[in-house]
Model the fold of this input.
Amino acid sequence: MAIRAQPVSGLRGAGIFACALVLCATLGPLVAVAVRAEAPGGLGPADWAAIRFTLIQAALSAVFATLLAVPVARALARRRFPGRGALITLLGAPFLLPVIVAVLGLLAVFGRNGWVNHGLIAVGLAPIDIYGLPGVVLAHVFLNLPLAVRLLLQAWLAVPSERIRLAASLGFRPADMRRHIETALLWETLPGLLLLIFLICTTSFAVALILGGGPRATTVELAIYQAFRFEFDLGRAALLGLVQVALCLGAGALAFRFVRLARFGGGLDRAPHPWPGDSAARRVADGVVLLLATVFLLLPLAAVAAKGVAPLPGLPPHVWEAAARSVAVALVSACLALALALPIAAFIARRTASGIVEAIGALGIAVSPLVIGTGAFILLFPLADPARLALPVTGAINALVALPFLLRALVPEMRSAMALYGPLAEALGMTAAQRLRHAILPRLKRPLGFGAGLAAAFSMGDLGVIALFSAPGQGTLPLEMYRLMGSYRTDDAQGAALLLMALTLAVFWLFDRSGRVHD
Amino acid sequence: MKHTIIATGLIATASMATADTPVLTVYTYDSFVSDWGPGPQIETAFEATCGCDLQFVGAGDGAALLARIRLEGARSAADVVLGLDTNLTAAARQTGLFAPHGMDPEGLTLPVEWTDDTFLPFDWGYFAFVHRTDMATVPTDFESLAASDARIVIQDPRSSTPGLGLLMWVDAAYGDGAGAIWSGLADNIVTVTPGWSEAYGLFLEGEADMVLSYTTSPAYHLIAEEDDGFAAAPFDEGHYMQVEVAGMLAGSDQPDLAAAFLDFMLTEAFQTVIPTTNWMYPAALPPSALPDGFDTLIVPSEALLLSPEAAADRRDAALATWQSALSQ
Done:
């Protein structure tokens, strides 16, 4: 017992420290805003309407994105074909784009003047109008389906190939695979995934407003904007920020009640074994699913790319400088995210009831970016010139935002690695550091690469924090793109959007690639 | 080695010069500081005369600018705030953070009289619905727009200054009838965007027939893109104005430079930059000095503008009307 206590408490200490850091970084700004408030605000009927709409659209978006992701992830997990790796990276793109770029791409396809409507009118059918709740849900599915697919794909690929080999030798049919393997992995993954996407959609602002068609589609985040910008009522902004936290904790408690841990045991990291019970019909079905998903996710990106190609070479030098700054911030953000995520994941993985801890991790996406930014500004302003801190703060806040995604990918694999090698490591008397280096980290390459890529991509696309802290000569690429749009330079803005899309994808791909095993 | 020493000497001289040069910090909105905005040219022109280092800090749009100043309070590094409009100046004045300009501006060419002792205008424009010239029937007022099947995209008054301007436009033109106008417009509105950029982008992508912008927007397409395919629709009710202003902060550590900047703001060197960078009317330049192309723009029959106090009074009621009419 005495031998064991040492490494465990060291890891636990780091986990608790990282959790506390995250709590301070997310709730601290909220408290700072509340303290600056002059009078306590109250929630009016309009706020309740906003909360209702926020819940409805986020729930619908989460359900559709997650359910649609299941067949896509399954098809990607079971099929091997040339260009599969590239396709997986490309399919992730919508999730990584700044919202306004994604929305313009989506509207180029599904908008009133979009390709779909041109097609419908050409064959004599009535055009579609997506503005309203359908548009909001469509956009959220477009933005979040890639994330759902990636996280589910991780779960599928985490099934040790030895289990699949065993299933094949036992003559499992598709129904058996579903019952014994796929159902179990879905129970472990889906609740957390639903929660994540639900939370992302609760802080949605621009998508809900642009595609929602008007004040009917007011979300809590927009109400915060109103409180902050229109009324300068910091009390109400803080109160609404608290509502978001309450939604997050409530949804977290609900989601983790349904998590069932899958126990596949460990494997020897051998190359994947073909999925058993693979019929020709199944192969065709998977092909169709992949084709549909590709068309849905890539057409809007193609629209963005098509419009950006011509102006790209003529972009002025300061746009390229901004691009370099953005890449630097992205790299810092990725490192920070990993440093936070590893101890927290280790901490979570050691316990069975981890809902609250994981909810703490999820706060980074549940707390309004505007509130975090404003709070950080209030906290930092007396200490230092906020303008000097614009880039570091952007990197740090986006590391926080990426944290829940990292945890989602890390925790299951960490858990199985610990369950499998924990006893052996203990018997060998390995210290926490040795254990991490030799037994745990090698098995976490895939989620670590993916998570670092996400953190980097989020920072690349960030527009919220940088806009609040902006300083002369510190503009990032999204900010420059937005300034171009604001100066009528729509063509150059489209070029910058393409550059941003390409760079974000490249940064994500580099990290993700470094973590890939056997595919 | 010799080069290194010379270089070190040069750098030392340069940094000494920087240390001696006073810095004037001007907070403004984002598009003002972009390379295509007025910022860079104005910086060069002012620095040529002031013996100072003029630094523009972009902080979102007009409303974000005011929020930033309020957050920073008396400790703000800003000496001058440039880019608020008259819908925001009442709230800005109430903060007590601004100092009177103490000037008697001459040669203002605004269509309205200017008596504000704290804020000085630097440019202005009329809000208008902009459309492509191939639009079949162009509405001539809000009623005919509501009756038509024209599709429009507007900005949210809660997050955008043009959105707030439209709110005030309908309120100034129709008063108690504003609710009926908004109800009538509800089925024309394709969508409401967070800011001007998104709305104008959607319009250019063909998502709407008209977009809320300025009567000067077609001048951009005409002059910068040589495209005469855009126009602003003249409305019989008259057009609400946006007057963009600047003011100096009471807590400025460079009050003389700040006053010199406000003075410079109304001279030709500043004013001639505005039309083709900010695409607005300069506040102190006769129409004859405007660039070619501005003469093709519509001139509204009547200029509407609520006083800053009236705008602040009407704002919440007008927003409630807007929200309830469009939430049906």
In short: Chain A touches chain B through 56 residues (CB under 8 Å). Chain A has two domains: 1-36+314-519, 54-303.
